[in-house]
Hints:
The complex is a heterodimer.
Chain A: E1 2-11, E2 14-24, E3 29-33, H1 40-47, E4 55-60, E5 63-64, H2 70-75, E6 78-81, H3 93-104, H4 118-130, H5 146-158, E7 164-168, H6 176-192, E8 196-200, H7 204-210, E9 213-218, E10 221-226, H8 228-233, H9 235-242, H10 244-247
Parallel strand pairs in A: 3-8, 3-9, 6-7, 7-8
Antiparallel strand pairs in A: 1-2, 1-4, 4-5, 9-10
Helix pairs in contact in A: 3-4, 3-5
Chain B: H1 2-23, H2 28-54, H3 62-78, H4 83-105, H5 110-130, H6 132-135, H7 158-181, H8 183-193, H9 195-200, H10 205-231, H11 241-254, H12 261-279, H13 283-298, H14 302-329
Helix pairs in contact in B: 1-7, 2-7, 2-10, 2-11, 2-12, 3-4, 3-10, 4-10, 7-8, 7-10, 8-10, 11-12
Amino acid sequence: MLKLEGVSKSFGGVAATRDVSLAFADGSFSAVIGPNGAGKTTLFNLITGRFAPDAGRILLAGVDIAGLDRREIVRRGIGRAFQVASLFPTLTVEEALAAAVQAHQRRETVKLQSFPLAAAVSRAGEIMEMLKLTRVAGILSRNLSHGDQKLLDIGLALALDPKVLLLDEPTAGMGPEERWQMIETVQALWRAVHMTLIFIEHDMDIVFKVAQTVRVLSYGTVLAEGTPDEIRRDPSVIEAYLGKSAAA
Amino acid sequence: MTRRWRDLGLAGLGLIVLLLVPMLGAPPAIRDFIMFAMAYGLLAMSLNLLIGYTGLVSFGHAMFFASGAYAFGLAMQSGKFSIPAAFALAIAFTAVLALVIGAICVRLNEIYFAFLTLAFQMLIYNVILGWVSFTGGDQGLMGGIPRPKFLGIDLADRTQLYVFCSVLFVVCIAIMRQIVTSPFGYTLRLIRDNQERAAFLGIDVARAKLVCFVISACMASVGGILLALFVSGAYPNFGFWTTSGEAIFMILLGGSTVFLGPIVGTVILRILTDVTIAYTSHTELVLGIVILILVLGLRKGPLDVIAERLENRRQAKAQKVRDAADDASGKKP
């Protein structure tokens, strides 16, 4: 279980996250929504150790990880993909994934082996299979289509065998049809691998259709949480976020 | 596996070619040219571990070239060491020096890293200049470097020295080849491409950079030792910033994305220098024009251009595979 207790973070006097308490059950599939500037990405940055929170605790399986080095947090099983895919431009899809697998297995040392190690190749192959990236195995990351770049970004996080996977807007910048393909791939992935998956998403149709539970952030605080049906009917959410038209 | 055997085969072939040169009765000038090229080639190759593979542009790499030459020369002049022992001592000394300097430098990025390495280089250079009683100051290590026989090898003999240097050179190149094709070599590429993301993959970025920095310094020190053996002395300009600049220029002239690019650059630079010195006193002018052509015209080294062409061809093939797969699954391209 991933649990946040009273987590706060300010940047130069601007409170990006205010006293946020949330709990994500093991193996759950949750969405985080909220208007721009609500603190969704900041929340991910706090959980993954990019920033240390000013106050509060972040518990992973009961252990406080708040303020730990991001590498240590990765080692404890929290992986993330980025809103703008964060890749290794000059490596092919297969090379990047194999290198990530080796980094995870701590095989960075110069032994007499050559890159890539057989074990890393087979794991990279599994990941490509899951994400439908096998067809682009030999393409350099910088030459991939936008959708494939987003998938590879997720693949790099998967190479770490995370217990918790955070996806920052997996469908950002995609057309309607591509979005659904993407979210179906993510859903299939979550079913195939037992892990807690949390994603940030702006498309309400997608959120209400696929998420088990939804957390709504606004101005750095938790406005509401519940099942998609509860959120859809919550008056404060309708007012603050969905707008009057959704209530009609 | 096959790739490693191929590389080892090529290394052996390279060594044979180098050894054939004196046997076929090449004039001493050619041999001297090759020895210089091997010493400076190691400097440029080792610097490219940092620049080309890790994305760390060091402006102070020649300090390790000098530290190898001076530590070796001083050890031999003390008369207490055999050549192999002085060799090991010079490399170990450089490793410790690089560990201390690297531990401070690798925490900084880009221009800050570059300037800090430059500053350390000036510090070392000034120590060499100022500590006259120990290093000989601006005169360099005087009196030559003694070369006692060891294991039946007599480095005072020009041919034996040539063979000795060729073997060491090829061994160092093979070690560097193994490093860049190993899992660690790919960790370095991850850092070069995107160090923020590399950290999110759990990689200890600072440690990997430091390891690379120390290895690269040790390889540069071997180059310095070879040069010291060859010229029988060590001089402050081995560690002057212009020597570091020359090494960067060699990488530019050859190409940083091709493993042997810096060697090619070294040979080109040495030929350019030797030819222009023979016919004109305007060597710098010619070199300047060549830099301008490279920077403004190609924007990369000549070998980089060839490598890019080959890569584009491979990419076109990979994209065909993708398009065929997408057509088969009915997905829109």
